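Example record for the data management plan.
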Amino acid sequence: MIASAVPFVASMLPSERAKAVGAPVEADLTGIERGTLATVEWRGQPVWILARTPQMLERLRQGEERLLDPQSRRPQQPECCRSAQRSIKPEYFIAVAICTHLGCVPTFLPQAGAAAAGPDWRGGFYCPCHGSKFDLAGRVFRGVPAPSNLVIPPHKYLTDTRVLIGEDTP
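Corresponding structural encoding:
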């Protein structure tokens, strides 16, 4: 009887593919230059890693009154990322690259004044499908269709140059 139960119990365990889909993903930060964006895949979703410049970090302090949730009070990020930078390390911004309106992938427009996003644009992410705008910390602007900030996945730094996306810092 026990011998017949083993295959049955084994069939209920997740397959290697199912484990891989939900498994954490490790990313190397050494090849990401300041001011550029890299994309990795986690749980079948694109995840951005933005290596922010000092100028980008400075721009995060400007125009907070135009943001819907500037202090990140809504739970779209791990507790350790509730700050103006929405990150563990200010120089790296990690976010799920999916607009919180209808699931489109926003465009990275790092330069201030980008025509598509308007003359008061200070850099960030713009969803051309419906006009949602997010700053360089993924905080959503007031008056756009997206209802909330971009989602920050759980993550932790293994070293200064390696990050594990999908697991929180204990």
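Summary line stored alongside the record: Residues 25-165 form a domain with the Rieske Iron-sulfur Protein fold (CATH 2.102.10.10).
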